[in-house]
Amino acid sequence: ETGVTQTPRHLVMGMTNKKSLKCEQHLGHNAMYWYKQSAKKPLELMFVYNFKEQTENNSVPSRFSPECPNSSHLFLHLHTLQPEDSALYLCASSQRADHQETQYFGPGTRLLVL
Amino acid sequence: SQQGEEDPQALSIQEGENATMNCSYKTSINNLQWYRQNSGRGLVHLILIRSNEREKHSGRLRVTLDTSKKSSSLLITASRAADTASYFCATVSPGYSTLTFGKGTMLLVSP
After folding, report:
1. Is B48 in Cβ contact with A102 (below 8 Å)?
2. Using the beta-carbon criterion (under 8 Å), do A105 and B42 form an inter-chain contact?
């Protein structure tokens, strides 16, 4: 248990669906991250929020839309996804994004797009 | 762009043996971190070594860093079946605020 929770743990959606992934951290951290992990590829950073402000958008397609209402919660809104978006989506948090120390990861959401 | 690259891609050993994984990177770093990931789960931080450090220990883990060769190694001594996982190195470069991960080494420890 790392103090970072993600829901749902598994998600199957069609290409026309809209769904949201949720991440919550109970560590008092100020930075939160979304990563995508596909088979045989390095972990890809998608978005970074530092003190609720988005500081990094790693050329992510607009069908992925992040939202950070406060320092403890992070969402990833999904719409009109493609089959190649199927992957494990990991959320992480750290004390702050501009001093890169340890990141704490959630268990991930396994997404399958049909 | 990918910074860390682990070697080997996969490693299979018997319980009790030592496991050594290597990580090479391309540009200068502030620190290098090792993480473990059990199958289909989140990553767990193992150890962080700063650019001015050469060696660090944590329990059965030993990490070395050679900045002249831009490489690091992770040694797990007296391995156990529970050490079966993927191991990733991640680097933080000066002027950047994010971690860059490699593809990882899959370690299988057989009883």
Report:
1. yes
2. yes
Please provide residue A67's backbone torsions phi and psi, each rounded to the nearest 5 degrees.
Answer: -145, 135
| Partner residue facing A97 (CB), from B35, B44, B97 | B97
Nearest to A64 by CA among A51, A50, A47: A47
Contacts of A85 (CB under 8 A, 6+ apart): A63, A64, A78, A111, A113
Cα B109 to Cα B17: distance, rounded to the nearest angstrom:
9
CA distances from B10 to A17, B13, B19, B46, B110 (A): 37, 10, 11, 19, 14
Mean pLDDT of all residues in chain A? 92
Output the tens digit of pLDDT for each of chain B's 111 residues: 446 788 899 999 999 999 999 999 998 999 999 999 998 788 999 999 999 999 999 999 999 999 999 999 999 999 999 999 999 999 988 777 788 898 899 999 999
Instruction: Nearest by CB to A101, from B2, B43, B48: name it.
Output: B48
CB contact under 8 A, B44 and A2: yes
The answer to whether B17 and B79 have CB atoms below 8 angstroms apart is yes
pLDDT digits (tens, 9 = 90+) for A41-66: 889 999 999 988 888 888 899 999 99
